[in-house]
TrEMBL record:
It comes from Blepharisma stoltei. The keyword Ribosomal protein applies. The keyword Ribonucleoprotein applies. GO terms for biological process: cytoplasmic translational elongation. This is 60S acidic ribosomal protein P2. The lineage of its organism: Eukaryota, Sar, Alveolata, Ciliophora, Postciliodesmatophora. Residues 69-115 are annotated as: Disordered. Residues 99-115 have a biased composition (Acidic residues). Residues 81-98 have a biased composition (Basic and acidic residues).
Amino acid sequence: MKYLCAYALAWLSGKTQPKASDLADIINAIGGDFDTSRAESLCDLLAERDLTQVIKAGIPKLQAFAGAAAASSAPVTTTEGAKEEKADEKKEEKKEKEEVEDIEGAMDLFGGDEW
């Protein structure tokens, strides 16, 4: 997946046809391991294609580059995904509320109403 992400970053930076060296620069910048053959095969696969159209066509066509982790993971059903999303939203709302309460306590730092 990192090769695909690096390709997308290079494409978003203005390179309409990123090369393996562009991907190497991006991946090496974050200290990642780089496999030239994988990068070259991805660049060859996406050569002269509009990345937005490829993305619209669907992720399954690009899963070959996702690696063993994506292939071995079980797909999440829609209901499970929706439940997890709702739980995440509730956690975020609770965290935001706690942060606001923490900030409100600090508002009286310099005497509050005494001014």
